[in-house]
């Protein structure tokens, strides 16, 4: 250990004491405290660069200094309009590039592996594959095919998430992607159950096209969207045996919230939605499965169909309050008084559920720039990741670390919301484990893992596939190859895997994976193209102190307290061997990256 | 619902993050003069580490209790479920009325060994059929009240006013409402291998510092400082305990994090309250229930019985009691999609050597149902909570904690 390093380490406790002293002031973007709760617009004289940064943080995925400057140069009205009314802004981004994994024989895909093998047993064929007439494991090809589509669709959905993340990073219409992300959490639909990336992609495009349009149109589109219909079991909601799943969630989660309807309303509404179904990617109404008789929903009686029930729901005052409140909690802040929620509901009602005018009012409001709202929001994982890349100046979503694994580790994987309620927001994004993981994500970005294994080639989530492959290559018979690793006390689940002789699921799992990766295009595995040296130089930084200040200002929404600022500067000075950057130019990158890692590991970085 | 392989054991990628891969946390902390509060507690608090431990396991999604512990002696069960009922000869019978789902060998053994109390008809007045509302009621033990703290969190505040770091461990992706406390900051993590900070040697002192919340921080900032401190204190011990743990016991295909709980218990953590769950609404079996439900129950039974075998092995079986619950049961009658819809009353289970096994509470009627054709609950679920709080953990002021008087069952002592 060099003498200087020892000195620094001894010195740090003193710095840490200093950190505990009151230092950090509120964010410069925050207006006076009496702005809180005031939905009136800010004056043009209130508009400044910090507030432009705050707006971009919330209405988009944060901004580079150049993007913030551009917004700050507009008037407040122009800036908010630029974000909200964005459909005319040119946005030349590529469509999703399908690998070509699907073929018509797959439809309709059975709901489970047992359903597939039962179908094959009964009819001699399933998923476009015939049962072998004789011999060993006669249904194995069906099981292989079942796993093929499961894996292929899942891997392709990972590519859809990459494609979407790339859009978030480079779009000219950040609020379009941000609203799509909001609706993805609101109308949460998961590839886990839908098992068809094409449906998820279609839903994603719907959120993008209609996400700032009219809520009624959006709600009807989502209710008739094959991904949602599949997710909430519409296919089994038929006359004479209504399934309540969709009717319950539309009232509880999508429109009114708990406590504003009865169980009877759900049962009645479910009948109105009977017959709503899909064939492959198309919405269909099966008239012979639709219950045309009278229903009573929320106090109204008639021979309603689904759209009429949606209109009854939209007529409830609570629906506008609920939607307005949910958007506000997502974009502005978690704590919302009942009174303010009603006023927000009024804004949405007055706009006849048009979302853009509501968003305009919200982003223009003094409340949005009040101390209660500024730098108080914990960034959801996808936003944390995308905005980190954006502020690093990246224009390509890195392949290492893997975008999907990184966001999943932090608790939010696109196209895989945990439940139909979507993701809980706010403090629930942070646990001790998740807070550390957020710092580790930054580490993995600035110091990419040289042992990285691409999860779209290698079955990292299911190590048994690799074991089976290895043993088969060694000439093991199927039973031996697919046996679980020996244990002293074997559980029921591990001992009964291969008890059906007509097929072997672990063999199918392996073959399905192999067939899938033959077809699915690989995700490019470029590491993050970070160049902090150039960034610091073009910002005109000459000293370590200036570099720390620049990075903190570029990345953080709250100012650094003096103690932390001093410790970070001491760290960088120690690493470069002095306070001037110029002599260290040729070896500056590593110390800067470590410094950035330290800054972005601060708890404060989670706030946007 | 998330596929089960997501919850499976390990990945090769994650295996690369072995314990110790996070470097010199302790060394750097000592060098910088910060007391490594949590890690030094290991040796001195070995005694408190031997205290009574309470594990709560949640089955999310609303487990179908009627097909878990089947009342085969009641014809009404078979009338309500012509397709989904399980024939008597397939069940693992535990007496002349009840039998467990066919692959729940572990549960059958725990019951027959007298280590399992089954509480019947557990529920509450004006039941909610929403997963999210109902689970919040169970988490807070305060239906329809808007209570902000969880019952396990309030329990920790009451029995450990000193708020010992690491007293509550919650293994999950996000913190459960059940463990939200006024004074305690629960240790919440998912994969213990990833519960640590990556960082270079020379970054350590800065990375491992904890700042105190100050008055001019906003609420979210203060919260982040608290969490950061908890992470700093607990991560090293958790990571090392889980990485070092070796056991011959097979927890089955999905361990439900119970293997990690065993590791932490074996390591002598100060933790008295553990909270884990079978995640992602797994038990929400509206359609095509039979195969899926049987598989879920097998995993669940394997993991729980594996855990208790492991407790015997490490000599802690007398110190540990587990409570198992779900946010509601399912509709008595099957639906037309080979599934069941959201229901009301359900079984709860309390398991462990100290438990006096058997049936508790009155059986709910399968013929006299409420207007939604659901079971009418016979046992307020908070009586079972009170049983654990008073009978097992020896805290007597349950009335304040549970916001009402709930008579415990004579399960202990």
Give your account of this protein's structure.
The complex is a heterodimer of chains A (608) and B (413). With 608 residues, chain A is mainly α. Chain A is built from 28 helices and six strands. Chain A has a domain at 226-315. In chain A, helix 4 runs antiparallel to helix 17, helix 6 (140-170) packs parallel to helix 9 (197-210) and helix 9 (197-210) runs antiparallel to helix 10 (215-223). Chain A is flat, with a radius of gyration of 27 Å. The two termini of chain A are 39 Å apart. Chain B has 413 residues and is an alpha/beta fold. Chain B has one domain (52-196, 234-402): Alkaline Phosphatase, subunit A (3-Layer(aba) Sandwich), CATH 3.40.720. Chain B is built from 14 helices and twelve strands. In chain B, strands 1, 5, 6, 7, 8, 9, 10, 11 and 12 form a nine-stranded mixed β-sheet that branches. A three-stranded antiparallel β-sheet of chain B has the order 2-4-3. In chain B, helix 6 packs across helix 12 and helix 10 (219-244) crosses helix 11 (258-266).
List keywords for this structure.
heterodimer; A: 608 residues; mainly alpha; two-stranded antiparallel sheet; 52% helix; 3% strand; flat; B: 413 residues; alpha/beta; Alkaline Phosphatase, subunit A; nine-stranded mixed β-sheet; three-stranded antiparallel β-sheet; 33% helix; 13% strand; globular
């Amino acid at each position: 250990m060099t003498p200087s390093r020892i000195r620094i380490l001894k010195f740090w406790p003193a710095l840490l004491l200093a950190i505990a002293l009151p230092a950090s002031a509120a964010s410069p973007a925050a207006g006076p405290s009496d702005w809180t709760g005031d939905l009136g617009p800010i004056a043009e004289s209130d508009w400044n660069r910090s507030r432009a940064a705050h707006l971009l943080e919330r209405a988009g995925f944060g901004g580079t200094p150049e993007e913030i400057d551009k917004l700050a140069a507009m008037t407040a009205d122009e800036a908010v309009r630029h974000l909200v009314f964005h459909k005319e802004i040119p946005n030349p981004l590529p469509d999703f590039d399908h690998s070509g994994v699907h073929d018509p024989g797959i439809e309709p895909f059975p709901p489970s592996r047992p359903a597939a093998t039962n179908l094959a047993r009964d009819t001699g064929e399933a998923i476009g594959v015939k049962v072998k007439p004789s011999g060993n494991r006669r249904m194995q090809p069906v099981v292989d095919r079942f796993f093929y589509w499961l894996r292929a669709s899942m891997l392709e959905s990972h590519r859809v998430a990459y494609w979407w993340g790339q859009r978030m990073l480079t779009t000219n219409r950040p609020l379009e992607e941000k609203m799509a992300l909001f609706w993805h959490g609101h109308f949460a639909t998961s590839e886990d159950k839908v098992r068809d990336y094409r449906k998820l992609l279609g839903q994603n495009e719907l959120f993008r096209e209609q996400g700032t349009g009219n809520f009624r149109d959006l709600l009807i589109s989502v209710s008739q969207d094959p991904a949602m219909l599949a997710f909430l079991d519409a296919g089994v909601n038929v006359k004479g045996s209504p399934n309540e799943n969709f009717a319950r969630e539309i009232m509880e989660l999508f429109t009114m919230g708990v406590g504003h309807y009865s169980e009877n309303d759900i049962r009645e509404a479910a009948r109105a939605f009977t017959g709503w179904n899909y064939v492959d990617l198309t919405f269909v109404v099966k008239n012979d499965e639709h219950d045309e008789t009278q229903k009573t929903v929320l106090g109204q009686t008639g021979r309603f169909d689904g759209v009429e029930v949606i209109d009854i729901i939209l007529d409830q005052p609570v629906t506008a309050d609920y939607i307005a409140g949910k958007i506000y909690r997502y974009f502005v802040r978690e704590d919302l008084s009942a009174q303010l929620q009603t006023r927000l509901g009024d804004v949405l009602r007055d706009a006849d559920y048009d979302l853009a005018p509501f968003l305009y009012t919200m982003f223009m409001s003094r409340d949005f720039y009040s101390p209660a709202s500024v730098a108080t929001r914990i960034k959801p994982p996808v936003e944390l990741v995308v905005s980190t890349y954006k502020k690093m100046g990246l224009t390509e979503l890195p392949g290492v670390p893997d975008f999907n694994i990184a966001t999943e580790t932090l608790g939010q994987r696109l196209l895989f919301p945990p439940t139909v309620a979507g993701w809980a927001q706010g403090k629930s994004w942070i646990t001790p484990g998740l807070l550390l993981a957020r710092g580790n994500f930054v580490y993995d970005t600035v110091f990419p893992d040289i042992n990285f294994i691409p999860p779209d080639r290698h079955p990292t989530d299911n190590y048994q596939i690799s074991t089976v492959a290895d043993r088969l290559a060694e000439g093991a018979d199927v039973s031996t190859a697919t046996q679980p690793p020996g244990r002293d006390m074997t559980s029921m689940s591990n001992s009964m895997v291969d008890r059906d002789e007509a097929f072997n699921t672990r063999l199918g799992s392996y073959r399905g994976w192999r067939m899938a990766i033959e077809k699915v295009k690989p995700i490019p595995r470029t590491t993050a193209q970070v160049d902090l040296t150039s960034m610091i130089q073009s910002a005109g930084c000459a000293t370590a102190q200036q570099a720390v200040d620049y990075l903190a200002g570029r990345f953080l929404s709250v100012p650094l307290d003096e103690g932390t600022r001093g410790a970070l500067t001491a760290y960088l000075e120690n690493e470069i061997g002095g306070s001037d950057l110029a002599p260290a130019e040729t070896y500056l990158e590593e110390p800067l990256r470590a410094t950035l890692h330290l800054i972005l590991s601060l708890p404060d970085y989670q706030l946007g | 619902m998330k596929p089960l392989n997501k919850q499976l054991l390990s990945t090769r990628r994650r295996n690369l993050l072995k314990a110790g891969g996070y470097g010199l946390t302790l060394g750097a902390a000592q060098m910088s003069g910060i007391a490594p509060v949590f890690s030094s507690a290991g040796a001195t608090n070995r005694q408190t580490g031997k205290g009574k431990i309470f594990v709560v396991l949640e089955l999310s999604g609303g487990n179908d209790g009627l097909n878990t512990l089947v009342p085969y002696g009641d014809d009404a069960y078979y009338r309500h479920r012509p397709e989904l009922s399980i024939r008597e000869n397939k069940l693992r019978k535990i007496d002349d009325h009840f039998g467990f789902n066919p692959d729940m060998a572990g549960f059958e053994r725990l019951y027959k060994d007298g280590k399992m109390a089954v509480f019947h008809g557990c529920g509450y007045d004006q039941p909610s059929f929403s997963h999210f509302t109902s689970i919040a009621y169970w988490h807070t033990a305060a239906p329809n009240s808007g209570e902000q703290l969880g019952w396990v969190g309030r329990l920790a505040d009451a029995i450990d006013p000193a708020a010992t770091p690491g007293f509550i461990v919650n293994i999950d992706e996000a913190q459960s409402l059940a463990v939200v406390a006024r004074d305690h900051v629960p240790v919440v993590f998912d994969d213990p291998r990833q519960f640590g900070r990556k960082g270079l040697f020379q970054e350590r002192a800065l990375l491992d510092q904890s700042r105190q919340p100050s008055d001019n921080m906003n609420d979210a900032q203060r919260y982040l400082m608290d969490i950061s401190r908890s992470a700093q204190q607990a991560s090293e011990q958790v990571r090392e305990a889980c990485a070092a743990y070796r056991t011959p016991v097979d927890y089955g295909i999905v361990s439900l994090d119970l293997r990690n709980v065993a590791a932490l218990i074996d390591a002598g953590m100060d933790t008295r309250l553990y909270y884990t769950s079978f995640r992602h609404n797994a038990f929400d079996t509206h359609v095509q229930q039979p195969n899926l439900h049987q598989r879920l129950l097998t995993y669940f039974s394997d993991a729980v019985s594996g855990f208790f075998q492991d407790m015997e092995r490490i000599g802690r079986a007398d110190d540990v009691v587990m409570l198992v619950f779900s946010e509601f049961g399912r509709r008595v009658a099957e639906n037309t999609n080979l599934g069941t819809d959201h229901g009301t009353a359900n079984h709860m289970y309390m398991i462990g050597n100290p438990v006096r096994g058997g049936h508790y509470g009155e059986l709910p009627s399968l013929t006299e149902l409420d207007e939604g054709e659901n079971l009418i609950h016979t046992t307020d679920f908070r009586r079972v909570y009170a049983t654990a709080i008073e009978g097992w953990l020896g805290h007597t002021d349950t009335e304040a904690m549970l916001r009402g008087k709930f008579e415990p069952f004579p399960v202990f002592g």
